[in-house]
Design a protein that fits this description.
Length: about 170
């Protein structure tokens, strides 16, 4: 019996290695590019958001917050929350929403509301550094003040989600 010659076996190993590498290389290349892009975007956002700040204007309402949870809401008027916020950082902020904690007799609810279109900021019309604005959220649920208590309001933005204004009432 004769075995394969050493030269033939080396050639077969090289061809097999190159075949496996050609199949795996595009996947590895795509993985490296995706990871690098995600890391770069995350790092850029973290650096930019270090200069961001958002706070309530305490001269407005209670800690910068006013709300109306009325028992008798007419057909053309809904319950609402209004806040006056100040951009205390150096970054334009937009796409602002509310996260509210409401407590009733049986449990607490955390509910998200978008600012109304008339008070919302966009990338082309942001809340600029040093500016303040009155934001409104219309409440779709009927929260009766006698059974529901507004415990906390948090105002968040999509530019720097970790930067928010938060107040407990």
């Amino acid at each position: 019996m004769k075995a394969l010659s050493p030269i033939v076996s080396v050639v077969i190993l090289i061809v097999l290695s190159l075949t496996i590498a050609s199949l795996v290389a595009p996947w590895i290349y795509d993985l490296v590019l995706t990871t690098a892009n995600e890391t770069g975007i995350s790092t850029e956002q973290q650096v930019r958001c270090r200069q961001a700040g958002l706070d309530f204007d305490s001269s407005y309402g209670n800690y910068g917050i006013k709300y109306n949870f009325s028992l008798n809401v007419s057909a053309n008027e809904s319950d609402w929350i209004r806040v006056r916020v100040v951009n205390t950082g150096n970054v334009n902020l937009y796409d602002i929403s509310f996260e509210v904690l409401i407590e009733n007799a049986t449990h607490e609810n955390i509910i998200h509301y978008d600012a109304t279109d008339s008070s919302q900021f966009t990338s082309s019309y942001p809340l600029r550094p040093g500016s303040s604005s009155l934001l409104t959220a219309n409440i779709s649920e009927d929260w009766n003040e006698s059974i529901a208590l507004l415990k906390e309001v948090k105002v968040i933005n999509s530019v720097c989600p970790g930067v928010s204004a938060e107040a407990e009432l």
